[in-house]
Specification:
Layout: H1 13-79
């Protein structure tokens, strides 16, 4: 007599083991998805930190240029 999966009872160990294996695969798949999401988020954080640092450098550079221009304007006014 051949026993099919559908013929097994609710408490059959093989059926429970298969169910657990499926759950484990599902959890592993979810873990991989979350790890990919985490890697993507880390890349975005790195990008925006670099952007922020570059922006701050540009602000400082702009303030320096502004100060130089103001100083030069004051000197030119004094000569006139």
């Amino acid at each position: 007599m051949k026993v099919y999966k559908d013929d097994r009872r609710k408490h059959d160990l093989e059926r429970r083991i298969e169910k657990i294996h499926l759950q484990v695969r599902d959890i592993q798949h979810k873990i991989q998805m979350y790890q990919q999401i985490l890697r993507d988020a880390q890349k975005q954080i790195y990008y925006w930190k670099e952007f922020s640092y570059e922006n701050e450098q540009n602000k400082n550079l702009l303030q320096g240029y502004k100060k130089v221009i103001e100083d030069m304007s004051i000197k030119l006014r004094k000569k006139s």
